[in-house]
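> @MW can you paste both from yesterday?
MW: sure, first one:
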Amino acid sequence: MAVQVRRLVRVYGDHQLGVRALDGVDLGFARGSFTAVMGPSGSGKSTLLSCVAGLDRPTEGEILVDGENVTFWNEEARTQLRRERIGFVFQSFHLMPYLTAAQNVALPLRLAGRKADPRLVRTLLEHVGLAERAGHLPAELSGGQQQRVAIARAFVTSPAVVLADEPTGALDSATAKDILRLLRGAASDLGQTIVMVTHDPVAASYADRVVFLVDGRIAGQMEHPTVDAVAGQLAHLDQLVATGAAVTR
């Protein structure tokens, strides 16, 4: 497994009376898999990503990255984890406005104190269809192009997992599909593990599996999702919670 979470609990506030953002989550993400995480607002989706990324410490449970327990690492070690073994793709692209596309892609390596191989950077930009835009600043790129740069940046350290938080939320539908095809191809062709939070059944249909969260708990899972199946399940999440059903197709 690229990433595993075991009995993961995150409580904000008092341990007994506080908000349980995660409540005993057990999940594994295989290498080269593409998983979508869905659920209503407040269901624990972003908290799950934050814990996996080492941005938030769980109250209970364990997090393993490439089989290594990283739960209790200190802040310095967790910062290194994020720089070298976790890739990020956000709804807002978070590119440095004064750096070119190529420089933005290379930035994680520079922050980690490593020299960026120009051939690697070019290969990644070619993979996302932007080799000819390598010298352009973010302001000279469209929203879809900026997200492609962000995806290339997420891949540059060959991370254990790429965490994508609503990566198509700021894009039009046609551009969003291009981005989703890139993520799908990265999992299928490059063996990259991807965990994507989304509210969109269309986005979820590009994944191998959908995990549904409600009130910090796994309410069900769906293999080989389709748009209609995901949309139908989202409309009946309360039934999944009641039955504890695991949905497969």
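MW: second:
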Amino acid sequence: MIKGSLVALVTPMDATGAVDFASLDALVEWHIEQGTDGIVAVGTTGESATLDLDEHLAVIRRVVDVVARRIPVIAGTGSNSTTEAIEQTVAAKAIGADAALLVTPYYNKPPQQGLYLHYRKIAESVDLPLILYNVPGRTGCDMLPETVRRLAQVPGIVGLKEAKGDPERTRDLLALGLPAGFALYSGDDATAREAILQGFHGDISVTANVAPRLMHQLCAAALSGDAATAEQIDRQLSALHRDLFVEPNPIPAKWALHLMGRVPAGIRLPLIPLDPAHHHTVRAALSAAGAI
């Protein structure tokens, strides 16, 4: 089981919107040096929605190659087409990813049985550990705990990223009696500390993009049951948890990383650079966390 702080990595881009692979290499090395426990390549924060298939797989391949088995790499391979999700997951396995993260199908809004059959079909088609990803605020589709319980029995489905940010949902998932090897990850930095202290296994994190060492330390403290240390670190990061979402993710995170000198300023339409009205807010959050 993969535990700890798993960064939902941005995809660096130049001013034209082209993927900047040299910056990606440097970003991956920085995360390993800072103690990040795993990397999610080409998830929501990695702008998966606007990378074409060749770019998508090229980014995963580059991250896998640079990581060179030092930490786990989880490939974002979800789609609202079951066939496309299978194709991308097969490709991620061939590239060498350690697991795949599959967002619930967006826009077409399947019922719960459709979600169950979608994920079961992928698991039956690809021999790669699969992590479910529920983010109803993005997809318009909420995977309910009972569906998670059913899917946790399917061989090959090994975990869930729950990004609803709802403490009641956290409690409901923990009460399901899921198999011992089934991992629960927070997908909401603001509530991740409490979720881990209650029994979650880690955080797939936006904040870790700009404060990787502190997010690793926060998760490690929470996993060990050191609530006081986890709370102290979380307090230092609280402005980042909030202000990296003053505009849709990853707009603020990419602007912050550019300010830190880690990536170029590029972002791909229909996303645009951070509105100058928010520059002071994000800069102050970075300063409070000691990131600048």
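> thanks! The chain is about 45% helix and 15% strand.
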